[in-house]
Amino acid sequence: MMILQEFKGSNLSATECDELAIDRVSESLLKRERKLNNTAWFDYRLLHPTIRTYLFAHYYEEAFRYMVRLHLDYTQVEGDNPRSYLPKNDPLGKTRTALIKEEKTGVRQAFRNCTMVWKARQKADEYGIPYDVFCMSGMKVAIGRIWQRTPSPSQLYSQHIINGIIDRWAELASQKMHVAKSDFFQLQNWCEHPSQIDHAQWVIDQINARVNPDFALAEYGFSKPMIPSQMIRASFPESVILRAKSLSLR
């Protein structure tokens, strides 16, 4: 499996990504990206920050429309022109109102949507939470607290919403295994990249948290391997490894 391939902004070149980031995002936010590359959810670490932000915007809109459909009026998000929170042509662009004001006054308007989506995406990266989980969990936390409106991207990184998102992610991770979808993290593509090592350790930690680790180790250690043998031997008792091997052969 691979991460989502087609979304608005996904076809931008590296040069276009750089130019957009420099034009629309403050230097203080851009300086955070190097550190966030080491904490973002594994599938996103090899993506340009601009592409990551467009991907986040895609999942925000999915979560937004889901909540509108569920709690307000499903007809608003159906058909060829569904309701959206962000600008439809460019989720990181300016609103129609801002563009009209810019044209009338000749004064360049700030990219406010881009800034708030960028900040929300950075918060998801800080905690290593997949964007779909982050956005949907944030929406559900807000609705659960009887908000009258679905939260904007900027409200998703308010502390009380963040706390709820973190709790929800911990709950989801305890219920089932969450691993990277990119083939880059399959053992057949192992090149000792730091993100591969981080991911392998993440998988190990999840397996060890299971009541019966044999089954998860059978899948991610042997059937669909994501962990190198030396890390397996260093992390699990021999008895667990032998049972996992046996299960993988069934």
Layout of secondary structure:
Layout: H1 14-24, H2 27-30, H3 33-36, H4 49-71, H5 96-105, H6 112-127, H7 131-144, H8 153-156, H9 159-175, H10 194-208, H11 213-223, H12 229-235, H13 238-248
Helix pairs in contact: 4-6, 4-7, 7-9, 10-11, 11-13
Your description of this structure?
- There is one protein chain.
- This protein is mainly α.
- The chain has two domains: 14-175, no CATH class; 183-248, no CATH class.
- It is built from 13 helices and no strands.
- It has helices spanning 14-24, 27-30, 33-36, 49-71, 96-105, 112-127, 131-144, 153-156, 159-175, 194-208, 213-223, 229-235, 238-248.
- The protein is elongated.
- The two termini are 23 Å apart.
Quick take:
The protein is mostly helical and 250 residues long. The chain has helices spanning 14-24, 27-30, 33-36, 49-71, 96-105, 112-127, 131-144, 153-156, 159-175, 194-208, 213-223, 229-235, 238-248.
Assembly level: single chain
Beta-strand content: under 5%
Order of helices and strands: HHHHHHHHHHHHH
The low-confidence parts are: none
Content-based structural category: mainly alpha
Q: Biggest β-sheet, characterized?
A: none
Global Rg? 21 Å
User: Distance between the terminal alpha carbons, to the nearest Å?
Assistant: 23 Å
- Give helix % range: 55-70%
Mean pLDDT: 90
Q: Give me the count of strands.
A: 0
Count of distinct structural domains: 2
The backbone outline, from C-alpha atoms, is elongated
**Count of helical stretches:** 13
